[in-house]
Amino acid sequence: MRYRARGHDLIALRRLNTTVVLRALHRRSPQTLAELAAGTGLSRPTVEAAVEELSERGLVGEAAGESGERAPGRPARRFRFRTEAGYVLGADIGLHKMVLLLADLGGAVLASQRSDIDPELSGADRLDLLRRGTEAFLGAHVPRRAAVLARCVGVPGVVDTSGVITSVVVPEWSGVDLGRLLSDGEPGHTLVENDVNLAVLAERWQGAAALAGDVVCVLTGHRVACSLTIGGRLHRGRRGAAGELGMLPLLGMDTAHQALNWPGARRAGESEVAALARAADTADPRALAAVADFADRIAPGIAALALAVDPELVVLTGGATPVGRHLVPLLEERLRLMTLHVPRIALSTLGERGVAIGAVRKALDRVEEELLADTAS
């Protein structure tokens, strides 16, 4: 009995050592065996054994030789975390569009696709479109489906801790565990998250909020919704509905998108908001009035969050960002009358990919959590 327990302990220790080495290479690559031993505190033979095991699993490989002058003698072998060992899929399916991103385990986007969606499409047809779209997209870009280790889909609705959706945008999805439906027969993890929550994750990862901790993100366009991070962590609330001020008609966010309707001339392929922004840039009084109307409608909701959270930054993302140059000073002016302190307001630079980028980040977090977990127990 004692020997079985000891054998179990040795196996657990070996797994823990392997995870420690993988964490070190995930954090910084490439590294030599000597660097890994010094950085982890493990012996060189232990590091060698761990690297060999990780190489067999396809997670670690030898780095290509570096150019330039070398010291005399055989150069030390350098090892790296193989970001190409797997993939994650980030998806954003809204009322008017679907965006798909395929990324490696380092977060580099390898392929992307955007499709327009009929806003009148039913919930069932929209789900079928998502399934068929991702199937074709992955089939075109991924050699082995099993290599897709996680998928995350951003949806316009509140997602609770069990994965069940409440949506006024796609009412047929309310009460549905969309993640379970999408994961049927698919390898890897399938996650579903509120789109504006993913937008703020994207801004924290690659966008305007990279150096900020307390952030309010405002998704603008065909609908207005908000999300927030506190101390750098996404604040979802008990049921995942934190920041959903667009649900409260009293604040006016639910009708704000109507202010962006632009009857003026549009160039070929130009969106309505882009045409409005172009007109505002020429000081067209109707366009400037439309932007001011939009600012009037969204300012009370932003002020409510600013007073509740006291954020250091408000990020505007989504479809209305083309008018951002005119919108930001108008919002600052209105918030001065409504709040104690006006937070800094920034425009997202991630464009239409913002939600899908956040979905990639959430999928990567799940994969890293699994790969880098303490496996000693």
Q: What's the CATH class label of the largest domain?
A: Alpha Beta
Low-confidence region ranges: 1-5
The tally of helices reads: 10
Major β-sheet annotation: 5 strands, mixed
CATH topology of the largest domain: Nucleotidyltransferase, domain 5
Main sheet: which strands, in order across? 6-5-4-7-10
Please give the share of residues in helix: 25-40%
What sequence of helices (H) and strands (E) makes up the elements? HEHHEEEEEHEEEHEHEEEHHEHEH
Would you give an account of this structure?
A hairpin with a 2-residue loop joins strand 12 (225-230) and strand 13. Residues 1-5 have low confidence and may be disordered. The chain is 40% helix and 20% strand. It has helices spanning 2-27, 33-40, 44-56, 123-141, 178-183, 195-206, 272-281, 285-309, 324-336, 354-371, and strands at 31-32, 60-62, 78-81, 87-93, 97-104, 109-116, 148-155, 158-159, 165-166, 189-194, 215-220, 225-230, 233-234, 313-318, 344-347. By secondary structure, the protein is of the alpha/beta class. Helix 8 (285-309) crosses helix 9 (324-336). It folds into 3 domains: 2-81, Winged helix-like DNA-binding domain superfamily/Winged helix DNA-binding domain (Arc Repressor Mutant, subunit A, Orthogonal Bundle); 86-198 and 355-371, Nucleotidyltransferase, domain 5 (2-Layer Sandwich), CATH 3.30.420.40; 209-349, Nucleotidyltransferase, domain 5 (2-Layer Sandwich). The protein has a 5-stranded mixed sheet with strand order 6-5-4-7-10. A 5-stranded mixed sheet has the order 13-12-11-14-15, with helices on both faces. A 3-stranded antiparallel sheet has the order 1-3-2.
